[in-house]
Write the structure tokens for this entry.
Amino acid sequence: MLPVVTAPGDVLSRRCQEVSADDPAVVALAADLLATMAVSPGCVGLAANQVGVPWRVFCVDVRGHPKTGADHGALVMVNPVLVSATRKERAREGCMSVPDFTGDVRRATRVTMGGYLPGSGDEIEVVTDAFEARALLHELDHIDGLLFLDRVAGPHAVHPRQTYR
Amino acid sequence: MPSIAVTVVGHDRPGIVNRVTAHIADLHGNLEDSSMGLLRGHFAMTLIADLPDEESMQALEDRLAPLRDEGLTVSVIAVPGEEPHDPGLLARMSVHGADRPGIVRGATDVVLRFGGNITGLSTRLGADLYVLTADVVFPPGTDLAAVSELLQGRMSELGVHATLVADDEDVL
């Protein structure tokens, strides 16, 4: 399990670099991200810069979450690109890198995102909805140097976290 | 029909909102806009209400007196009616980073320089992170990119991250 960087952290506020999906170091990072996510309570996504690596890589896994519609299991995306995003809805979300707060954020609930799989380097396109769509957009923001705090829906949309730390 | 502003600040406990609003309702007042929350654990409430007559205002003062005796700071003041603000360019400002003096002052300096009016603002302090979010209305035609550039520069000098974006109001 890798230690998670919490805000304020410079690596969280910078756009991450594209990498080669078949680079062994990227494959190792993908495994570490999945392992760290799996052992972190409530965590459904983790971006590379959240563990201090400024690469355009993230993972999501929303299986079993009550808000999940479509899901693609434990998924790692390298160099992801947003293709389309529609039907915004507001919901409260948290982040391992912002342990003290949650925030109300409007995000698309229908998302198509392209990218590459680590190792094989195969190009993929994920078409999803609901909670997985939100998770993908949250993680894409991370590697663009944005936190949910940059997208909260107004001055009264940041809340002290009530639950796990 | 006089409009009043009621503020209540103090140690949080169950029942404060119920008691204040019950007194207003008993006096046939009408609760309009209100904002209530916990600030570092302190209960803080501001509300605007209409009362049926001048006598009701003194009656409300009397009814709220026990709250003062319980350690809450309570004020009841008459307020004039306000005209709606002129429409402008709505923007949302977010600033976050390590806490240090001058963040709010620096951000609002930039807003003021462009003639912006802050219509909502909230700050939160966590263990290691300070967060500011605000709604700002700028005069029509304001170059929000220029505001954003200056804001990011000023906030960068303070070592914190800032974003300012046009706030879309989708009509569905």
